[in-house]
């Protein structure tokens, strides 16, 4: 179950990262009370801030659950690697970014390390 919590934490971290990408502090300053609930002006401004808070809390919660069973260093390494791969998958799928052979090679190295930590690392309690 701890590994599942780790994967969920990584997914929340990836979502949190994209919330940061779409946050615009300048638009938040320009937001007025009468336009906060507007779908055209308010929602695109405060939705990334809301996601930032919710995904951040979810990330912390699930990561804290996972490190109760998985050694912290292993959990952090896996969490970081899975987050990186999820971010790249989202960038390719939704943002139209390309993937080079070198990126594929290095991501395979990361996945090899994650699988090595999973199967040959310290035993989960």
From TrEMBL:
Keyword check for rRNA-binding: no
Gene3D superfamilies, sorted: 1.10.3730.20
Membrane-related topology note: Multi-pass membrane protein
One GO CC annotation: plasma membrane
Residue ranges crossing the lipid bilayer per the database entry: 41-62, 74-95, 101-120
Subcellular location: Cell membrane
InterPro entries: EmrE-like, Small_drug/metabolite_transptr, Small_multidrug_res
Molecular function as annotated in GO: transmembrane transporter activity
Domain of life of the source: Bacteria
Keywords: Cell membrane, Membrane, Transmembrane, Transmembrane helix, Transport
Family in the record: Belongs to the drug/metabolite transporter (DMT) superfamily. Small multidrug resistance (SMR) (TC 2.A.7.1) family. Gdx/SugE subfamily.
Name of the protein described by the UniProt record: Guanidinium exporter
């Amino acid at each position: 179950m701890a590994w599942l919590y780790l994967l969920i934490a990584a997914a929340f971290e990836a979502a949190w990262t994209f919330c940061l990408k779409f946050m615009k502090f300048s638009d938040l300053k320009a937001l007025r009370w009468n336009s906060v609930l507007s779908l055209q002006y308010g929602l695109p401004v405060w939705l990334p801030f809301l996601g930032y808070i919710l995904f951040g809390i979810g990330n912390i919660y699930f990561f804290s659950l996972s490190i109760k069973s998985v050694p912290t260093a292993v959990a952090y390494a896996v969490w970081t690697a899975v987050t990186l791969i999820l971010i790249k998958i989202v960038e390719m799928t939704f943002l139209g970014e390309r993937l080079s052979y070198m990126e594929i090679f290095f991501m395979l190295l990361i996945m090899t390390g994650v699988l090595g930590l999973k199967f040959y690392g310290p035993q989960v309690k």
